[in-house]
Amino acid sequence: MKNFTFRKAVIEDKNSIWNIIQQAILRRKADGSNQWQDDYPNEQSIENDIVTDFGFVLVNEEKIIGYCAVIINYEPAYDAIEGKWLTNDDFVVIHRIAIDENYLGQGLSGKIIENVEKLAKKNNIFSVKVDTNFDNIAMMKIFEKRGYQYCGEVYFRGSARRAYEKVLK
Protein backbone atom coordinates (compact mmCIF):
# COMPACT_ATOMS: atom_id res chain seq x y z
CA MET A 1 0.00 0.00 0.00
CA LYS A 2 2.36 2.69 -1.20
CA ASN A 3 0.50 4.39 -4.03
CA PHE A 4 -1.34 7.03 -2.07
CA THR A 5 -3.05 10.00 -3.61
CA PHE A 6 -4.13 12.99 -1.54
CA ARG A 7 -6.65 15.10 -3.41
CA LYS A 8 -9.61 17.42 -3.02
CA ALA A 9 -12.83 15.57 -2.41
CA VAL A 10 -15.57 15.77 -5.01
CA ILE A 11 -19.29 15.35 -4.39
CA GLU A 12 -19.18 11.79 -5.74
CA ASP A 13 -16.90 10.94 -2.78
CA LYS A 14 -19.49 11.98 -0.19
CA ASN A 15 -20.93 8.53 0.57
CA SER A 16 -17.50 6.96 1.00
CA ILE A 17 -16.38 9.83 3.22
CA TRP A 18 -19.56 9.71 5.30
CA ASN A 19 -19.04 5.97 5.78
CA ILE A 20 -15.54 6.60 7.15
CA ILE A 21 -16.79 9.41 9.41
CA GLN A 22 -19.56 7.18 10.79
CA GLN A 23 -16.98 4.48 11.59
CA ALA A 24 -14.88 7.08 13.42
CA ILE A 25 -17.91 8.34 15.38
CA LEU A 26 -18.62 4.79 16.56
CA ARG A 27 -14.94 4.23 17.46
CA ARG A 28 -14.88 7.41 19.55
CA LYS A 29 -18.06 6.27 21.33
CA ALA A 30 -16.61 2.79 21.95
CA ASP A 31 -13.52 4.48 23.43
CA GLY A 32 -15.81 6.27 25.91
CA SER A 33 -15.21 9.65 24.31
CA ASN A 34 -17.67 12.50 23.97
CA GLN A 35 -15.89 13.66 20.81
CA TRP A 36 -18.18 13.55 17.76
CA GLN A 37 -21.13 12.31 19.84
CA ASP A 38 -23.24 15.47 19.41
CA ASP A 39 -24.45 14.99 15.80
CA TYR A 40 -21.28 16.60 14.51
CA PRO A 41 -19.72 15.98 12.13
CA ASN A 42 -22.79 15.05 10.13
CA GLU A 43 -23.58 14.39 6.49
CA GLN A 44 -24.30 18.07 5.87
CA SER A 45 -20.97 19.20 7.33
CA ILE A 46 -19.15 16.76 5.04
CA GLU A 47 -21.08 18.02 2.02
CA ASN A 48 -20.26 21.60 3.07
CA ASP A 49 -16.56 20.67 3.28
CA ILE A 50 -16.70 19.31 -0.26
CA VAL A 51 -18.56 22.21 -1.88
CA THR A 52 -16.32 24.78 -0.18
CA ASP A 53 -13.18 22.91 -1.32
CA PHE A 54 -12.18 22.10 2.30
CA GLY A 55 -12.62 18.33 1.98
CA PHE A 56 -9.62 16.15 1.11
CA VAL A 57 -9.33 12.40 0.73
CA LEU A 58 -6.49 9.92 1.00
CA VAL A 59 -6.88 7.35 -1.75
CA ASN A 60 -5.18 4.01 -2.27
CA GLU A 61 -5.76 2.34 -5.64
CA GLU A 62 -9.02 4.23 -6.27
CA LYS A 63 -10.37 3.47 -2.76
CA ILE A 64 -10.94 6.33 -0.35
CA ILE A 65 -9.29 5.29 2.90
CA GLY A 66 -9.02 8.60 4.76
CA TYR A 67 -10.56 12.04 5.06
CA CYS A 68 -9.90 15.46 6.52
CA ALA A 69 -10.96 19.07 6.14
CA VAL A 70 -8.25 21.61 5.32
CA ILE A 71 -9.07 25.27 5.94
CA ILE A 72 -6.76 28.20 5.29
CA ASN A 73 -6.65 31.17 7.68
CA TYR A 74 -10.06 30.57 9.19
CA GLU A 75 -11.10 29.05 12.47
CA PRO A 76 -12.95 31.51 14.70
CA ALA A 77 -12.54 29.29 17.78
CA TYR A 78 -8.77 29.68 17.44
CA ASP A 79 -9.02 33.43 18.02
CA ALA A 80 -9.96 32.82 21.66
CA ILE A 81 -7.21 30.36 22.62
CA GLU A 82 -6.50 30.04 26.33
CA GLY A 83 -2.77 29.93 25.85
CA LYS A 84 -0.65 31.23 22.99
CA TRP A 85 -0.11 30.16 19.40
CA LEU A 86 3.48 29.88 18.23
CA THR A 87 2.83 32.23 15.29
CA ASN A 88 0.30 34.82 14.19
CA ASP A 89 0.97 34.44 10.46
CA ASP A 90 -1.06 32.62 7.82
CA PHE A 91 -2.03 29.11 8.87
CA VAL A 92 -3.71 25.93 7.73
CA VAL A 93 -6.22 24.16 9.98
CA ILE A 94 -6.83 20.41 9.84
CA HIS A 95 -10.21 19.18 11.06
CA ARG A 96 -12.13 15.90 10.97
CA ILE A 97 -9.28 13.45 10.35
CA ALA A 98 -10.72 9.96 9.92
CA ILE A 99 -9.39 6.67 8.57
CA ASP A 100 -11.37 3.71 7.20
CA GLU A 101 -11.50 1.08 9.95
CA ASN A 102 -10.00 -1.52 7.61
CA TYR A 103 -6.82 0.58 7.36
CA LEU A 104 -6.24 1.53 11.00
CA GLY A 105 -2.82 1.11 12.60
CA GLN A 106 -0.88 1.82 9.42
CA GLY A 107 0.13 5.42 10.15
CA LEU A 108 -2.38 6.89 7.72
CA SER A 109 -3.46 9.79 9.95
CA GLY A 110 0.19 10.80 9.91
CA LYS A 111 0.20 10.40 6.12
CA ILE A 112 -2.78 12.78 5.88
CA ILE A 113 -1.05 15.32 8.13
CA GLU A 114 2.16 15.02 6.09
CA ASN A 115 0.21 15.76 2.90
CA VAL A 116 -1.52 18.77 4.47
CA GLU A 117 1.90 20.10 5.53
CA LYS A 118 3.12 19.76 1.93
CA LEU A 119 0.00 21.54 0.71
CA ALA A 120 0.59 24.37 3.18
CA LYS A 121 4.20 24.83 2.06
CA LYS A 122 3.14 24.74 -1.59
CA ASN A 123 0.89 27.71 -0.72
CA ASN A 124 3.73 29.47 1.15
CA ILE A 125 2.05 28.89 4.50
CA PHE A 126 4.35 27.72 7.29
CA SER A 127 1.98 27.06 10.18
CA VAL A 128 -0.47 24.20 10.71
CA LYS A 129 -2.92 24.34 13.61
CA VAL A 130 -4.99 21.45 14.93
CA ASP A 131 -7.05 20.50 17.95
CA THR A 132 -8.50 17.39 19.55
CA ASN A 133 -10.46 16.28 22.58
CA PHE A 134 -8.58 15.75 25.84
CA ASP A 135 -9.52 12.06 25.72
CA ASN A 136 -8.27 11.41 22.18
CA ILE A 137 -4.91 10.04 23.28
CA ALA A 138 -4.15 8.44 19.90
CA MET A 139 -4.52 11.75 18.04
CA MET A 140 -2.47 13.63 20.66
CA LYS A 141 0.35 11.09 20.20
CA ILE A 142 0.19 11.51 16.41
CA PHE A 143 0.42 15.30 16.73
CA GLU A 144 3.34 15.10 19.16
CA LYS A 145 5.15 12.48 17.02
CA ARG A 146 4.86 14.81 14.01
CA GLY A 147 6.35 17.76 15.93
CA TYR A 148 3.20 19.66 16.91
CA GLN A 149 3.49 21.69 20.10
CA TYR A 150 0.72 22.05 22.65
CA CYS A 151 -0.38 25.71 22.75
CA GLY A 152 -3.43 25.77 25.04
CA GLU A 153 -7.16 25.22 24.90
CA VAL A 154 -9.84 26.20 22.40
CA TYR A 155 -13.59 25.67 22.69
CA PHE A 156 -16.01 24.06 20.25
CA ARG A 157 -19.71 23.71 20.99
CA GLY A 158 -19.00 24.38 24.67
CA SER A 159 -16.21 21.83 25.10
CA ALA A 160 -12.52 22.47 25.69
CA ARG A 161 -10.08 20.93 23.25
CA ARG A 162 -6.29 20.69 23.18
CA ALA A 163 -4.79 23.02 20.57
CA TYR A 164 -1.49 22.34 18.77
CA GLU A 165 0.61 24.13 16.20
CA LYS A 166 3.56 23.17 14.05
CA VAL A 167 5.79 25.71 12.37
CA LEU A 168 6.95 24.30 9.04
CA LYS A 169 10.46 24.83 7.72
From TrEMBL:
Keyword annotations of the record: Ribonucleoprotein, Ribosomal protein
UniProt keyword Hydrolase present: no
Protein name according to UniProt: Ribosomal protein S18 acetylase RimI
Domain N-acetyltransferase: 4-169
Classification via Gene3D superfamilies: 3.40.630.30
Organism of provenance: Flavobacterium haoranii
A Pfam family recorded for this sequence: Acetyltransf_1
UniProt GO cellular component terms: ribosome
InterPro entries per the UniProt record, alphabetical: Acyl_CoA_acyltransferase (IPR016181), GNAT_dom (IPR000182)
GO MF annotation: an example: acyltransferase activity, transferring groups other than amino-acyl groups
